[in-house]
Amino acid sequence: MSINSAMQSGVTALAANATALATISNNIANSNTTGYKRVTTSFTDLVSGTSNKHSYTSGGVVSVNRQSNTNQGELNSDTSGYSLGINGQGFFAVSDAAGNVDSSSSLLFTRDGSFTTDTEGNLVNSGGYYLQGWPADSSGNITTSATDANLLAPINVSDLANAASATTAVTFTANLDSNTAISDAVSSGDYDATSAVAASDTSTTPVTYSKAMSIYDASTGAGTKPDGTISASISDSLGQEHTVTISLLKGNVVTDSSDPAYGMTQWYYEVSSDDVTSDNGLNQIDTGSLYFDSNGNLSTDASTYGGTLPNLLSDSGFSIGASSETSGVHWNTDVGADAQAITMGFGTSGTSSITQLAGDTTTKSISANGTEFGSLSNVEISKDGLVTAIYNNGHTRDLAQIAVATFLNPNGLTAVSGNAYKVSTDSGAYSLKVPGENGAGSVEADTLEASTVDIAQEFTGLITTQRAYSAASKIVTTADDMLQELLAIKR
Hints:
Elements: H1 2-29, E1 39-47, E2 58-67, E3 75-77, E4 82-87, E5 91-95, E6 107-110, E7 114-117, E8 123-124, E9 130-135, E10 153-154, E11 170-177, H2 184-188, H3 194-197, E12 228-235, E13 241-253, E14 265-272, E15 276-277, E16 284-292, E17 318-320, E18 330-331, E19 340-342, E20 353-357, E21 362-368, E22 376-381, E23 386-391, E24 396-402, E25 404-406, E26 414-416, E27 420-422, E28 431-433, E29 442-445, E30 447-449, H4 455-489
Helix pairs in contact: 1-4
């Protein structure tokens, strides 16, 4: 019986070492495969239940393959295509089809970041898998989910050059110097703003000033020099850039006790642009006044302004008509743009602020939404996986957020062709995360993760496996010789 069990041990040893040889061979074959994780073979003995102290029955050996998906490969520089590496734990979420993940496609996971664009602009790696991420909407907002794969979409970097949108909101923070002296233009009445900026005025049509700030020219003496200006760069419907300026001129403290703005300091304003035509020929988009209390705070109470907030402060803002219009405020004919409305964020949104405090008249910050037309210059991917289009006009546009998947037991994933894995009962469910957050590794652009295979180690294992296989074959031949001797006794 022991001779037979010895032969059986030799047979199991041959099978186990053959498996080890296959594992080592596959490791060597993938020593240059991007993101490949070395597989090791472990051996465990088999014990027969019939063994006792008077006799021993050999059980043999069995091989067990183990993945090492948690081992980090070296990140090497690579500027071809959209090469990406993960520095830390996690896997790129990919799909085997160029479309959203659904019943006709599978969500897979890989460390192979050798992404390039296909004919439609989708990012696809050398295994033929499409990189998935959370897409940004038209406003640049991104909705993420740890478990809902339906929110994922292939990341596409084509058809981005014509990204242009009209400005709808301008946000700024500014201060007007409370110590500003009343200008001679106001004291003398040269700046005749009474009909336009009285508290009871609700007109939205610019009126003709005797000396408007919008036409101020120090060299010719035209217009009135403003006490402060706030300029913003905006885009029209065609993506063309224009400068809109808010000119401000300090007025007097309101002394009429019957006026709703009694006790407040009045500042006159004009909104203008050289690219706008208005009926009075002064390039004015809007006119009015602002009132500040004794604490330097801007009043946004409609009652202060006679019951109606001026356009600059209202949620609806002011409007610029299309170039095709012939009256009112509209873009110049040569601009050729459509109509648009612009808010300044003083209403319920509260994103803009202007004060009248002691100190310099200055604009602390200013920004405008919208995108002027520009050609795509580059697509950048940040450490947190944010994919951003960079245009030659300096504007940027967020396209998507790469998702990194983590697992409770990444070594339990089931390998599939193309250096990718799928979920198994051993791995547990995936959790999709923003790169660099909650244990997920960060994304490194222009890098590729090298294979974790060490050629020297594999060659050493190859030699020892070969010797073990040869020894196992000797067990079989020796047991066979002993059986032959046993059979020879019969003769």
